[in-house]
Design a protein that fits this description.
This protein is α+β, with helices and mostly antiparallel strands and about 210 residues long. Helices cover about 30% and strands about 30% of the residues. Helix 3 packs across helix 5.
Length: about 210
């Protein structure tokens, strides 16, 4: 039976439209960093490169190599870690050109250095792209975090973050930094802005009592 992250890891990927506390374990990712407006062509190209690698791992058994511990699964969703440049933090209004980001796609636990090597070799052969040189493989562990499902345009996320901020205050939690994570459950190319579903998450720690 195919592993479905929406069902098996529901607490991490399918939160409700209200803030909640969650502990996120260490996870493996293909990642690529950047700066600037996410509506740019470069950003779209980076997403394409990440998906090429993710599907190269997913399809390995059909290409003649089955990683140890491999299981059928649905490719994980695109994620992004977002922050602002020093200049962006000084501005009173968001300037998307000052956004710092790391976009990423999670990989199953069986993904080893050998699997990563083979994925890069496969993509370079079938779908070469200069941005492949900027992709890295590594781990992230969010740990204790507050998350919430945001439904609607990305531009309306501040409203959801205000609800999360209120939750933190009420539960004596401190946000570790202004950096936050987004998990994109909808394809923005196919879903109208009002119906987009995005998990918003930020790392926290218990406040001083």
């Amino acid at each position: 039976m195919k592993y479905e992250w929406k069902k098996e890891e529901k607490s991490l990927y399918m939160p409700k439209q209200k803030p909640e506390l969650v502990t996120v374990p260490e996870q493996k990712f293909f990642m690529i960093k950047g700066i600037g407006n996410p509506n740019s062509e470069e950003f779209a190209e980076k997403i394409g490169v990440l998906y090429s690698l993710a599907y190269a791992v997913r399809m390995m058994p059909k290409q003649g190599y089955t990683p140890e511990g491999y299981f059928e699964y649905t490719v994980y969703p695109l994620e992004g870690i977002w922050d602002l440049t020093d200049e962006g933090k000084r501005l009173s209004v968001l300037d998307k050109n000052e956004l710092l980001y790391t976009i990423m796609i999670r990989q199953p636990d069986f993904t080893t250095d050998e699997v990563v090597k083979r994925a890069f070799e496969s993509v370079r052969k079938k779908k070469p792209h200069p941005l492949l040189n900027e992709v890295t493989f590594g781990t992230f562990e969010d740990g204790l975090s507050v998350q919430m499902l945001h439904v609607g345009s990305y531009d309306n996320e501040p409203q959801t973050f205000e609800l999360m901020k209120k939750f933190m205050i009420e539960n004596n939690l401190e946000r570790l930094s202004m950096r936050h994570r987004e998990i994109y459950l909808s394809d923005a190319r196919k879903v109208e802005p009002a119906k987009l579903k995005t998990v918003l998450r930020c790392q926290v720690k218990p406040g001083l009592s």
